[in-house]
Design a protein that fits this description.
Distance between the termini: 19 Å
Number of strands: 6
Number of helices: 12
CATH architecture of the largest domain: 3-Layer(aba) Sandwich
Strand order of the largest sheet: 3-2-1-4-5-6
CATH superfamily of the largest domain: 5'-nuclease
Strand content: 5-15%
Oligomer: single chain
Structural class: alpha/beta
CATH topology of the largest domain: Rossmann fold
CATH class of the largest domain: Alpha Beta
Radius of gyration: 21 Å
């Protein structure tokens, strides 16, 4: 499928984690350090650039510092695996390799203290939207579905299957529109981020409620029209729903560098192999990386 985008927005930590899990562990640096995840992520980014032909590419990274969401909810993302900094099972030991490779390619990268990658992506998507640009987001993070509109889509590859999340596909997949996705998540929560939902209200019930009432505000104003069992749960957990809505809402007003999407970007024409050779990673390879399957699935 041929789809073009003016701006390509990439969720850096998400991409690195997926390639760390999906790539063969046969890429080892001279000092014995694995770099398969970083190599796969760069190969994937170059493939996306070829596929979508963007004017600009921005890779957004999460902050290592506490965010507003973790201040609102102490247990936010507390269920994520904890690794020692030098643990070979820690995907993010390869983060410096990925960032150095992106610098060699002249691809824009951004990380801001206290700001999550979702908010950086949302803010750039909003800037691009204001300039009538077509945006493609590369991430499997479902929180980003709230950003989808007629000109902002999300690309996900599952094996050989490509998914382009348009407003229509979001509605078909989740039963709600992108504009309703925040309210949907506020009701069902998010186990991946350790956000509790309303007990007894799963995705189907939440979607049905929003299909009927449109928004959380209208739903809570009309609880008399809801089945008593569901209405009771909603009343008992109203504070939770309000908090959840704050947490899952992406901030699209972060002060990011707007010039990055205004002027066409010149990306250095290097292959993943060229880049990692320049960085000195290939002296202990068992085979040519060109023979490796590049997959994040």
């Amino acid at each position: 499928m041929t789809v073009q985008a003016d701006t390509l927005l990439i969720d850096g930590h998400n991409l690195l984690f997926r390639y760390f899990q999906g790539m063969p562990r046969s890429l080892i640096s001279p000092d014995g350090t694995l770099f398969h995840g970083a190599y796969g992520a760069i190969a994937g980014i170059l493939s996306h650039i070829k596929q979508f032909q963007p004017r600009n590419v921005i890779v957004c990274f999460d902050t290592p510092y506490r965010t507003q969401r973790s201040l609102l909810l102490e247990t936010y993302k507390a269920n994520r695996p904890q690794f020692a900094p030098d643990d070979p099972e820690n995907p993010f030991t390869q983060l410096p390799f990925l960032q150095k490779a992106l610098q060699l390619l002249n691809i824009y990268t951004i990380e801001m203290p206290g700001v999550e990658a979702d908010d950086l992506i949302g803010s750039y998507a909003q800037l691009a939207r204001n300039r009538n640009q077509r945006v493609m987001i590369i991430s499997t993070d479902r929180d980003l579905m709230q950003l989808v509109d007629p000109t902002t889509h999300i690309y996900v590859r599952r094996g050989k299957k490509e998914l382009f999340y348009t407003p229509e596909l979001v509605a078909e997949t989740f039963g709600v529109t992108p504009a309703q996705f925040i309210d949907f998540k506020a009701l069902v929560g998010d186990t991946s981020d350790n956000i509790r939902g309303v007990p007894g209200i799963g995705p189907k019930t939440a979607a049905s409620l929003l299909q009927t009432f449109g928004t959380l505000e209208t739903l809570y104003a009309n609880l008399a029209q809801v089945k008593p069992r569901i209405a009771t749960k909603l009343r008992e957990h109203e504070e939770l729903v309000i908090l959840n809505k704050q947490i899952v809402t992406i901030d699209c007003r972060v002060a990011v560098e707007s010039s990055w999407i205004e002027q066409p970007q010149t990306i250095v024409p290097l292959s993943a192999r060229d880049i990692f050779a320049q960085l000195g990673f290939f002296s202990r390879m068992g085979r040519d990386p060109g023979d490796l399957p590049v997959s994040a699935d």
